[in-house]
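Record now logged underneath.
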Amino acid sequence: MTSFENPKAIRHFQSICDSCQDLVTRFYKPSDLKLYGDGYLQASRNCSSLEQNDQE
């Protein structure tokens, strides 16, 4: 199963996208969006909620 077929990875990706869209509508800067995305990914790495190849 690839990352594009893993339901858990898809849910995480959708969550990041939805949150970033919400931040854009509240006029956050692109640097803030990058910071949010990086923090989300780091948190998912720390709690091992996704396999290594899905995190890439």
